[in-house]
Structure formats: structure tokens, C-alpha cells
């Protein structure tokens, strides 16, 4: 997209809502957000945005071995002059979600949404980076960084934890992040030099929106979720040995994110308290 007159900054006071509107325009218009071969008109609905202070102490907590680990990077380590973390949640459309509510193997629509959806997510992040850079704002996009490291199945930048820091939601038993638009979807983030008002978040506990109903435990075909949470290696092994060979070059499952009370909204009790 071409901008004839880049608006000055900071005089024009760009807001999080401005960024959200730009993201919605891209989501609505991009051909990457549909799968014509399957008749899927949109993979994602309009994204939900939040912001965190890049110096928030929550990012220090993420380096604890009890949360993510010392390998997790802080925003101020990733980018000099970082002032805010802009996070977003892309909710899967009902065209992706509804077919996956059955038991057993994932729906074809879901695995396409998972892989083609990630291609769109990366394109959206790149578009927002260009949009902000065009206004003179410094931007770092972790998901586009080939140097991101994975240690014990945990990344050196967690999109879900960035979203928690930005007030988008809290965690559930399945380790999905539950937002006001549910948990079935994908996340992204940008570290910027833009001073933004942080979005209020629930400070404690990390799982405040999870009603611990146990529905995701029943839904998991790999038996990877218990009342104690999700065992990531069991989930990963199921994807590698069962799902990937069936759907290659695509993969995905998402059973714990569909046909559950938090699929597309907050669970009942959390919704009433929200």
C-alpha cells in the first residue's frame, strides 16, 4: 500500500485503534485470508489488539524457568528504543472452526487454516511493520526473525505471552490464550518505538478466564491435557507421528480450541465478570 504523505510522528498521536483499523483493512482485502480451493471466504475474522509497555516487569518474569526460561527475550533486548509491544489475536472464522468441532482427526479446513493462516499472519505482520515504518516508527517483528530459537519446544519469543502482557486474555488448561473473542485463532506481535497506553490486564492469576471445565481434556485425541495442564511433548509427538503424515505438507489439530466453552468467547463465569 502506498502512502502519498506519511503522517508526521509523534505530532499526530497515532493510536492502537489506528493500527487495528489498518489491520482490519488488510484482513478484509488480502487474498491470503481465504482459501478459494475449499470455498473458504475468510480464514480469520478481524483481529483483536492490545498493547503493553516494552519495559513492563512481566517480561522479566517470563525469563523465569517456571514460566518460559532464560532464553526468552525481552522487548528492550530485541530492539533499542523499544517503548511498546503491540499484540493481536486473529480469531478463526466459523468456516474454519465449525468443521473442527467433531471428535477425532482435525478437519481439512482447520489444517488449511493453520498453515495458510500462518502465511497470512506473517503477511499481516509485515504489512503493519511497513505501515508503521512509513510513519517513522521503529519496528521489530519477532515472528519474521529467522534467529528466533526454540528450546525444549519453547520459543525465545512467545506470541501468547506477549498477548497476555498486552491484556488480550489469560491462559487455559490447554495453554491456549482465552480472549474476549475466544481461543481458536493465532497470535502476532510487533515491538515498536511508539508510546502507547498499555491495555489493562488481569494481573493474577495467569488462568483467570479458564473455568477449568475440563472440556479440552476430553477433546484432546492425544491425551496430552490433564487437570494439571497440557504436556507439550505429547501434543508435539501426536502432530509429528499421526497428523503430519496424513496432511503433509500441512498439519494441525485444534481440537482443544473447538467445541469448548472458550472457542469463540469467554466462558460463562469469566464473561459475566469481564
Structure description:
With 274 residues, the protein is α+β, with helices and mostly antiparallel strands. It has one domain (16-268). 31% of the residues lie in helices and 14% in strands. It contains nine helices and ten strands. A four-stranded antiparallel sheet has the order 1-2-8-3, sandwiched between helices. A two-stranded antiparallel sheet has the order 4-5. A hairpin with a 2-residue loop joins strand 4 (150-151) and strand 5. Helix 1 (16-29) crosses helix 5 (108-133). The chain is globular, with a radius of gyration of 18 Å. The relative contact order is 0.17. The model is unreliable at 1-11 (pLDDT under 50).
Helix-strand blueprint:
Blueprint lengths: L15 H14 L18 E6 L4 H4 L13 H4 L5 E8 L2 H4 L10 H26 L5 E2 L9 E2 L2 E2 L3 H7 L3 E3 L5 E3 L5 E8 L22 H5 L5 E2 L2 E2 L1 H16 L20 H6 L1
Antiparallel strand pairs: 1-2, 2-8, 3-8, 4-5, 6-7, 9-10
Let me know the largest β-sheet.
4 strands, antiparallel
Rounded to an integer in angstroms, the radius of gyration calculated over CA atoms is 18 Å
| General form | globular
Strand content: 5-15%
* Count of distinct structural domains: 1
Main sheet: strand order: 1-2-8-3
Total helices: the number is 9
SS-based class: alpha+beta
| Secondary structure tally: strands | 10
- On the 0 to 100 scale, the average pLDDT is 92
Amino-to-carboxy terminus distance: 37 Å
* Helix percent band: 25-40%
**Low-pLDDT windows of residues:** 1-11
